[in-house]
Amino acid sequence: SMPSEMLLKIFSYLDAVSLLSVGCVNKLFYDLANDNGIWLKICSSCLQPKRTIWKMKSEQTEAVPLGYAALHDKKPGYWKKEYILKQTAAVKTRVMRLAKRLDPYTGLPFKNKEAMKVSGLSWIIVLKEKNGKEHVMEKGNLSFKDTSVTILWYSTNWPCLDIVSTLKLFGVTPLLLDQSRPPNKNSPRRRSLIAEYDLANLTESSVPVGADRLVQLFSLNPGLLVGTWKEKNEIAFVMVSLHYHQLLERSILGSATVQYAPPPNKPVLDDIDPEYGLHDYSLHLEMHGRSCTYLRGTFRNLFCRKGDIANGYLRLTVVSLKDNRKHLPLIGTLGLSWETDVFKGNVKDCYVMNVTLLDDIGEPFWCFSAPVSMELSSKTSGLYDCMGPIYITNYADSEGKVCVKLVWLEETKEYIIVNLVLYVSTKKVNNWYGTNY
């Protein structure tokens, strides 16, 4: 019953974030909160101290003085949209500026944590039932490593696994970031779709990773781990491991329905080097649980001879069984810790593997972070049979494969990596380098 003129006067005292929030109340409030006069005032005070505003035209901006035409010749909501575009572009610029500085060891942005903080970035998962009902799980527990971030969600309100169809992973950023106060989940936010997983037939379509007395783990690419209760067909927790490569872009630049598509690599053919694309790779490898790191190492000058190209893959040998000088010990007992509101546990013989393979000029070539497991090998190596049992870890995606062979030494109570080989898809190499192997 309050007159619109009085509501409009009240709204004129609100800041931009509050205006966006009040516009979600009803249609009347939405129309009033789109008032060009209010948003023009916000634009002039926040973006241009000399009573000018910025008018966005494609990628260029030009100063426009305040006046009658700027106020009345525009559709309702015009200056709100301009303000949001300008503020969003400013945040993206600050984030990408932080992301430009690269770590010489990993080839990845050096200030990932700072960039995430500047953007107000968080992550959520959305579980969708077969009838269309959605369950939103807000940010879980974060664990940062050199090349990845691991996020664990748990709740007492998980839907039954039988009725779940899909899981969507989103990066979430405030529509308007207020540096003076922490982001609020009830304030206007935008979503960027990172990945979508089909959970309709989880136990049949995913890779079993391991189990303890309470839960069993299933893995889906990219980087998703779902823990289900053994006694009930229900979700216990969800863990996602996200590699830093293109993490910011995928978490910020996508839309709520379409994933961010990175620009394709432009190959530059080197006619001088007959083995272009076969040498000078570098690998940064991490093996870790949620809170502990078992191995961290950088391996340079990796190469592949033409005779090692077979079955659509280039073979890059990182650790050779025959060269015991390069065998690598792992620190601690491998396992993935988990927790819920009531229970905690640790699933042995599984971990998260982070692979960052750089090309000959240090550009990220193949990157992933994924939960993997170890299996007791039935084959004998001939060299280490007397020392202890041999375990195998295998990982595969559309771009390549990783094969790791470990030996358990009973005397020292540790695992030793005695063989580590990467198999990179020749199709990826050909597309990347413009070659034809």
Q: Can you tell me about this structure?
A:
The protein is of the alpha+beta class and 437 residues long. The protein folds into three domains: 1-47 and 68-100, Monooxygenase (Up-down Bundle), CATH 1.20.1280; 108-176 and 187-253, no CATH class; 281-433, no CATH class. 20% of the residues lie in helices and 39% in strands. It contains ten helices and 25 strands. It has helices at residues 4-11, 16-22, 27-33, 36-47, 68-72, 78-99, 112-119, 202-205, 247-252, 426-433, and strands at 52-57, 60-65, 122-129, 134-137, 141-144, 148-153, 164-174, 189-198, 207-211, 215-220, 224-229, 235-243, 281-288, 293-302, 309-310, 313-319, 328-329, 335-339, 344-348, 350-358, 364-373, 375-376, 390-397, 400-409, 414-425. Strands 15, 16, 17, 22, 23, 24 and 25 form a seven-stranded antiparallel beta sheet that branches. It is globular, with a radius of gyration of 26 Å.
Distance between the termini: 75 Å
Average residue-wise pLDDT: 87
* Largest beta-sheet details: 7 strands, antiparallel
What's the number of domains?
A: 3
Number of helices: 10
How would you describe the shape?
Answer: globular
In helices, the fraction of residues equals: 10-25%
Ranges where pLDDT stays below 50 over 5 or more residues in a row are 49-65
Report the strand count: 25
Structural class: alpha+beta
Radius of gyration: 26 Å
Strand content range: 35-45%
Protein name: FBX15 protein
Pfam families: F-box-like (PF12937)
Domain F-box: 1-42
InterPro entries: F-box-like_dom_sf (IPR036047), F-box_dom (IPR001810)
